[in-house]
TrEMBL record:
Pfam families: TauD (PF02668). This is Taud/tfda taurine catabolism dioxygenase. SUPFAM superfamilies: Clavaminate synthase-like (SSF51197). Residues 1-24 are annotated as: Disordered. GO terms for molecular function: dioxygenase activity. Keywords: Dioxygenase, Oxidoreductase. InterPro entries: AlphaKG_dependent_hydroxylases (IPR050411), TauD-like_sf (IPR042098), TauD/TfdA-like (IPR003819). Residues 65-206, 311-368 form the TauD/TfdA-like domain. It comes from Cucurbitaria berberidis CBS 394.84.
Amino acid sequence: MATVSTVTAPQGVGAGAGRPSSSQLSVTAFDIPNSRIVHGEKFPLGLELKSKDTVDIDTAIQKIEELSQAGAFKDLLTNHGTILFRGFPLTNATDFQKFVRAFKFKNPHREVGLAGKRTTVTTDIKTANEEPPDVKFYYHSEYGRSAHFPGILFFYSQIVPESGGQTPLLSSLELYDRLKEDLPEFVRHLEERGIIGRQYFPAKEDPEAEHIGWNWRDSYGWDIKDDDTLEVQRAKVEAVLKDQLEADGEWQPNGSLLVLQRLPAIRYIGSTGKPKPTFFNGLAGVYGRGRDNHALEAPHKGDDGKYHLPTTYGDGSPIPTEYLERLLEISDEIGFLVPWQEGDVALINNFTVQHARTPWVGNRSLLVSLWDGDERFVRREQIPA
Ligand SMILES: [Fe+2]
C-alpha cells in the first residue's frame, strides 16, 4: 500500500487562495525508522498528510472522514495493528476530539473499574495517565485485566518531552508466537487454566484512596447516591461487578474492596479469516510494577505505598517468576518505541497491540481516547479444528 489518496484537483480550487480543499490533500504511507514486520505487514504503518500549503484542521479532518467513509482504515488497522498519523495540524484537545470522531467508531468506550489517574479533558478525551514521569509502565492490553475493554485506542502527542517518553508498542500476535516458541509449557498452562487478576480498591473516605488515586466508589459506584447506606452502596457495586465484568468482589475488614477477575490470558480475534491467538492480558504490566516496587511478596504493598496484587493461574496457583521474567524480556525484544513528534496520533487496535510507557524528562502531554471498535474475540471452542 503506497497511497491512501492522491491529489485530484489543481491547487486553489474550491478552498480559497493558498488553502487546499480536502480533495487536494493526499495521505501517503511513510517509513518509520526501526518499524517491524509482523505477519508480513509493517508494524506500525505510518500515514502522512501531504500538502504544499498550510492545511487547516477542519479540512484535514474532512479528509479523514472521507477516507473513513470509503473504508480505507478498517483493513489497515486489522493488518498493521497500529497506524501512526503524522503531519495533521492538531494543536490541542479540541482538534484531537474532532480527529477521533472523524473515524466514526461505534461508541466511545465507557471505562468500568478505572485503576489509574486520568482526567477528562473533553467528552471523548482524557489524559493518558498522570503518574510521575519516572514511573515505567510495562506492556499491557488496555483493560486487559478486565472483561470490559476498549477495542480502539488513540494516543495524541501534544507535547513531546526533552528526552524519553516514547510509547512502546508490541504486536500481541507476535508476542503469542514468541512465547509459544520459547515457553510452550507456560502458554499451555495459560490456555488450560486461564488467570485470576486481583485489584485493591480502598474506600473513598480512606486517606489511602487519595494516595492510591482511585477507590471503589469512583471506579464502580456511579449509581450510588449520597444518602445510600453502606449496604446499598455495596450492593450497587456488586451488581456492576457481576453484570458488567462477571467479577467477584470481596469486602475487606478495613472497608476496602478486593476485585477478582477470572479471565483467559490468550484470546482469538475473529477478523482475520482463521482466528489468530493474541496475548491479551495485563500480565507483564502487573508483574513489572510489582517487581519494581518490591511488592512480589505478601502483603504485596510496594515502595510506592500501593498494592500490587499478583495475577495467578485460574486455579489460584502462582505463575512462576521465571516465566514472567522471560515474558518481560521477549516483550522488550519485539517492542517498538513510537518516536513521537508533536501532533502525531497513533490509532491502535487494542485486541492485537499492547502498549507501555517509558519514563521521560521535561514536559510531556499525551492524550488518549478509547472506543469500542468492530473487532470481536471468538471463543476457542468455536474455532473449527
Ligand atoms: Fe494503558
